[in-house]
Amino acid sequence: MDAKKKRVLIFDTTLRDGEQSPGASMNLDEKLRIARQLEKLGVDIIEAGFPIASDGDFLAVQQIAREVREPQIAALARANAADIDRAWQAIKEAAHPRIHTFISSSDIHLKYQLKKTRAQVLKEARAAVARACSYTPNVEFSPMDATRTDWDYLCDMVEAVIATGATTVNIPDTVGYIVPDEFGSLIDYLFAKVRNIGKAVISVHCHNDLGLAVANSLAAVKHGALQVECTINGIGERAGNAAMEEIVMALATRKDFYGFRTGIKTEHIYQSSRLLTHITGIPVQPNKAIVGANAFAHESGIHQDGLIKEKITYEIMTPKSVGISGTHLVLGKHSGRHAVSEHLKKMGYKLNAGDVKKVFVRFKELADVKKEIFDEDLEAIVYEEVYKIAERYKLVSLTVLSGNVAVPTATMQMEVDGKTIQDAGFGVGPVDATFAAIRKITKTNYHLLKYAVSAITGGTDALGEVMVQLKYNGRSVAGRGAEPDVIVASAKAYINALNRLEFLKGDVKKVKVV
Ligand code: KIV
Ligand code: ZN
Question: 131 exposed, middle or buried (CB, 10 Å; 0-12, 13-18, 19+)?
Fold first, then answer.
């Protein structure tokens, strides 16, 4: 095949496996926003959720299926009739629906979890695929824990589901156990032994428990897999899934070696990563490949010298190719609305006049206290002003007394359901006192799982970005706030988490996927 035409399909599971990351729970609006961004990015398939898991999951998948028309929309279902029927109900209005059904195949899972024989499981896998095919010809099947499954039994199962009608067969490394050479051999084995393998696309879905998810996915591509399942920033169950940006950029940068391309518009990668971080509050480590803060920062003098002489000396891809603008210094106190609006466009935000106005008001307030406004500051304002969720709780005012003599005290006014309430809290420090005041006013007492502060840009006048993670009913929810004053940012982050939690309260998860 012509190398230019050889294409690997990108199956994004940020909204399903990714949402299983601690703290990554998203509400319907947030899921829709991510789905639209994934469409803009050019992913081939969006796994929008697991409709039987909860009513919230069902509604989110259904809404995405209705509104996001370009990519295929997949819904996950265990290998039983109720799950498959529910999955179909959620995606039946999609332009390109796909049912993804799965059952465990390893002896470990069969013995300890399913308590079923190989023959029984094979029968159920076939029945599930047959039922899914009665709704749509676009059916994917996954033998869960495939990489710890007996290879010959795995071949029998793959052959059986293809014969029944599965058009994609996914080989998941569910527990992140396999290593690249071995995975390559397993894919070779499947191609050698499964007689009808040419009738289906072979997919892989790798978890990162040994830090090998991307390497394993790429090894599988080298050996014939034509679909890769991955998530933005590599979020997902436990250590996460294979990171989409890493797979896509590895295939693009090393097409000399792999000879494949993807349909991803790489210039939207950075914004997709930032959007996910803003929504979930899950930060990206600074040294993370492709999208980390240091991914394109050259510290060594020798490297800098080489780069000045010729970029290719130390740069294998450009920041621009993944959507990092490179010009970070933006605007100041005297910049007008037009300049701000033009700059937002350059950063990739297409905002309407009303939203530009809201961003501009906050921009002016910030420019009064901060000399230089950077892209990151502007981005933080956009997320707070434009993409904010409905708010049951709002911060009205906050006064904090602290120091090495006084008992830290926070006096606070908040709006709760439109009514202004005032109270005070004490604590071991100003943040602790602020959170105590919020708890009193809102009459809530969720367990605080995590509190993290970082500076969005350099300097003591930088915006402080705070992430707060609260635990509710076995799930965790994150909130974020950005302000020059870190105590105010902390209050906003806590309140944002409470508001996001409101959406999840009614959505009780009945089922969890491994
Ligand atoms: O990791 C896994 O095995 C899964 C399946 C549902 C594909 O997420
Ligand atoms: Zn998974």
Answer: buried
Ligand lying nearest the CA atom of residue 177:
1
CA dist 14 and 35 (Å) reads 9
CA–CA distance, 216 with 209 (Å, rounded to integer): 12
Q: Which of 174, 209, 217, 230 has the most ligand 1 atoms within 8 A of CB, as the residue to mutate?
A: 174
**Cα separation, 290 vs 269, whole angstroms:** 9
175 Cα to the center of ligand 1, angstroms: 9
pLDDT tens digits along 317-374? 999 999 987 655 567 778 888 888 888 887 778 889 999 999 999 889 888 887 778 8
Residue 247's alpha-carbon distances to 68, 124, 141, 261, 301, in angstroms, are 24, 33, 22, 11, 30
First to last CA, the chain: 37
- Measured in degrees and rounded to the nearest 5, phi and psi for residue 460 equal -75, -15
How many Å lie between the centroid of ligand 2 and the Cα of residue 410? 44
Q: Residues enclosing ligand 1, CB less than 6 A?
A: 17, 102, 142, 144, 170, 172, 174, 205, 207, 513
The residue nearest atom 4 of ligand 1, judged by CA position, is 174
DSSP characters for 448-460?
A: EEEEEEEESSSST
